[in-house]
Amino acid sequence: MEITAFDLAQRFIGVREIAGQASNPLILSMLKLDDDWPEGDEVPWCSAFINYICWLLRLPRSKSLRARSWLDVGRMISLNELEPRYDIIILKRGQNPTSGHVGFYAGSSNGFLVHDFIPILGGNQSDSVKVSMFETKDILGARRLYQ
């Protein structure tokens, strides 16, 4: 049986930050895999989550905590080529040209984007791992990690 990165990522749904001084040790582990500076879980960790899942499956990864670093990983694909469970989406976040968000394309029931939104499974979505809807206008790119 083939397990995809999306399949594995689903197992982490519900993992969340711990409010206050304490930090979730799993999220800290994800962050520390690629950088030493994070001291707590209240930092952007979407890229750390994707890197962790890819590390577990020996897939290509960015090895960076920057979401936009994923624009250079895998093979660029168009939105028409998106396949649920196999592709990642990189989005802009706010007005800062260096900020972003990254997550796994979660698909839709009819195989098409729902109006102007796209479902993404990722970390640091409302401080947890979950599926959330994001505006398609914020998409910077889509990448396929599998050959």
Beta strands, count: 6
| Strand portion | 25-35%
Distance between the termini: 17 Å
What's the tally of helices? 3
Average pLDDT: 92
CATH topology label: endopeptidase fold (from Nostoc punctiforme)
Order of helices and strands: HHHEEEEEE
CATH class wording:
Alpha Beta
Radius of gyration equals: 14 Å
Please, what is the CATH homologous superfamily?
A: endopeptidase domain like (from Nostoc punctiforme)
Task: Give the neighbour order of strands across the main sheet.
Answer: 1-6-2-3-4-5
Shape: globular
Number of domains: 1
Main sheet overview:
6 strands, antiparallel
Please estimate the helix content: 10-25%
CATH architecture: Alpha-Beta Complex
Give the class from helix and strand content and strand pairing: alpha+beta
Describe this structure in words.
This protein has 147 residues and is an alpha+beta fold. The chain has a single domain, classed as endopeptidase fold (from Nostoc punctiforme) (Alpha-Beta Complex). The protein contains three helices and six strands. A six-stranded antiparallel β-sheet has the order 1-6-2-3-4-5. β4 and β5 form a beta hairpin. The relative contact order is 0.21. The model has no long low-confidence stretch (mean pLDDT 92).
